[in-house]
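Exercise 7.
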Amino acid sequence: MKLYLKIFLLVSFDILVSCGKSDVGAEIAPTNLVLKSEISTDGSGTVVFTATADGAVSFDFEYGNGEFATVPSGIVTYKYTLAGTNTYPVSVTAKSISGLTTKKTFDVTVTIKVDLPGLIWSDEFNTDGTPNPTKWGYDFPFYYAQIAPYKYGKPYEGVEVREAQRKALEVPNTGMIVLSDIGDTLNIHPRNKTDVALRLANLALNRYYKVLQIDDSGPIYKEMVIEKNRVIISFDHSEGLHSAGDKLTCFEIAGDDKVFYPGEAKIKGEKVFVTSKKVKLPVAVRFAWSNTATPNLFNGANLPASCFRTD
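Solution. The predicted structure, written as tokens, is:
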């Protein structure tokens, strides 16, 4: 009797201990969640994710593009499609056998190479007006449209962006078209898309594909020279400089006090001479310096001049 009782007690004790370990382990959330990313070097955007965690039986992946995947192994392949170099948040949720979870978010940076001959941009612009093709990893032409005149709420809000866009031409391999003659000051998105497209296409056909031999830009401010009471303005793309009307409009001139008065502007050859009876010793000139300015200075290609300021 004593021998049988001892065996029964030992077996019962072992069973209880074994069940206790299983129950406790099932109630612990996964720990030590780690994500490794193997990014393809061919620029295809393919990434192999490997997630590991103690106590995990499956993993949920959220790739930062609103897409999901659940895999028991923790290994999954995903392909990003946005060109350029971009950083994505990748969320991984590790699940235990009882459903308890541990979640972490990791950042993965992916570079996708796309062989673009160039880029044409005709929509909104950052306020600094500066394109950045270098983000793509190689240089290519960047042609864009200067924003059209529009009745913005703040004074000079629109023209300051146009000026920034003009200055962005200092970036190599860029080109800009001006829309001051085909805009609508009451419509921020002018309806005349045809001429916008033609002007942008001519930039590409002339500069990149070299199938045209035309002047593809309106006059762009180059420099000014002060001679006594007059300011002489020089332009790039100035061949055939003319006004679409009896008198040039939208020129202003100022002296040391920086008070700008309407200027009397005349074309002589490929330059514009600006004076004012109210300014004896000029120091600065502005052209088309308002949100809604629609000036009438054109070149021989009948393309309008960009706004500018020298102060």
